[in-house]
Amino acid sequence: MTMRAVVQRVTRAAVTVDGRAAGSITGYGLVVLVGVTHSDTEQVAAALARKTYQLRILPGEKSCADTGAPLLVISQFTLYADTRKGRRPTWLAAAPGPLAEPLVGSFVAALRALGAHVETGVFGAHMQVSLVNDGPVTLILEA
Questions:
Q1: CA-CA distance, 114 to 51, in Å (whole number)?
Q2: Torsion over CA: 79, 34, 128, 8 (sign)
Q3: How many helices (H) and strands (E) would you count in the chain?
Q4: For residues 17 and 76, is the Cβ–Cβ distance under 8 A?
Q5: What was the pLDDT predicted at 69?
């Protein structure tokens, strides 16, 4: 397994924690839900960031790199849910917080190093995410 991202093309998005705004974007951009597994590294995070930033899914087959469109990055361990048995998901494939948090940070830092405008949620917090998915366009990426 490797680092995962669910990428949604949006026209606006926001994340709140305890009723307070944590991050928001307006206009065309991407919401990126990021999951980390045990074997991920900073190099994997950087590769996934490049792939995300250069993904040509904005109008006119453009990318965030082409247009300067913003990204809203949300950590989401549930991307590694195992639902093959029973009705209760297991989370064994998700990296624990002490490993995952710095790697989500590395993903964000790599995007910013490429020139991206990045807003974020709050790692480990209970978040409310609202968005308008345009298209709809939703892709699953792995590094």
A1: 11
A2: negative
A3: 3, 5
A4: no
A5: 98
75 contacts 121 by C-beta, under 8 angstroms: yes
pLDDT digits (tens, 9 = 90+) for 32-82: 999 999 999 999 999 999 999 999 999 999 999 999 999 999 999 999 999
Closest CA to 72 of 12, 123, 20, 18: 12
Q: Active-site residues: which are they?
A: 76-78
Q: Are the CB atoms for 45 and 71 separated by under 8 Å?
A: no
Residue 118 β-bridge partners: 71
* Structural domains of the chain in order of their starting residue, each with its CATH number: 4-142 (3.50.80.10)
* Residue type at position 103: L
Whose tokens are 């669910």? That residue is 6
